[in-house]
Description:
- This protein has helices at 42-49, 83-90, 123-129, 151-163, 199-218, 223-232, 252-261, 268-279, and strands at 6-11, 17-24, 60-63, 75-81, 100-106, 111-117, 134-135, 137-140, 169-180, 186-195, 242-249.
- By secondary structure, it is an alpha+beta fold.
- Helix 7 (252-261) packs antiparallel against helix 8.
Amino acid sequence: MGTNDYKIVNIFNEKVEFKIIDEPHQAKGMPSRGLYFPEPNFGEIAKHYGLKPGSWKEKIVNLKKPKDLVDVNPLLSCDWVTPLDVKAFRQGKIKICPLVACGIVLTKDNYLIINLRGGELTEEGRNLYGRGFFGLIGGSVTWKEAYKNGPITDTIDNEFEGELGYFNHKPGKLIGVVDANGVLPGLKFISTIETDATFKQLDEANKKSNQLREELLGKGIGESEIKTELERKRLPVEAWESAMLIPIRNDKKAIENFINAQKNSFVGSASGGLMIYAQTLKGD
């Protein structure tokens, strides 16, 4: 496999079930279990990995036994890790399987949406967050005791509003999982999500949000105040994660042609997810 390639682990034809367990995952190279109770000690965990604690502090769902994915109708047992464990994993320091939900967004005018991942194009930004590569909306799955429609579906639902805006949308189905290599490595669960917004509407919301954010940053306004202002104006608060939205015609051949033409510009989760979706479409 190349730098940002992938392999398809499973294409789901039946329902996938998740068993959520309130236990920190333990793997070789991780800090001692005591640093995760009664709440994670982010300072000490960061010190263990040689990382900065950062502001990302929550529990992330982790797949306990990746081999369970080979079952036709898998029951997936999930415990949790911290964002610091996720960063250490992305740097190749430990082996874990944090759940990441990625969404194939289908618009009213029959396009699917990918994004050019935004944020500062530092070496760390490119390697840890895939900035500057084509990707899908989505993100790590926050650990909860219970979910309305399941951990993947709920995450995609929340990410749609945060990244794309306050448009009517509804979850489609969980269609498969890819194992990404290189930038943003690991297992990515791929779902569809439908919206009654057109590409033009989504694009306009993205541009307005990013332009306003830049204006406010230029005035020295802090992140909390920026978020409040974006919410007040009903603009997506996490639109900055997409420097640009790109439409691809919802057609098997169009999807395959775009991927082949831009092969080295994708994170593996995006090209793999799109190829799984393309297999669900009719075409030559």
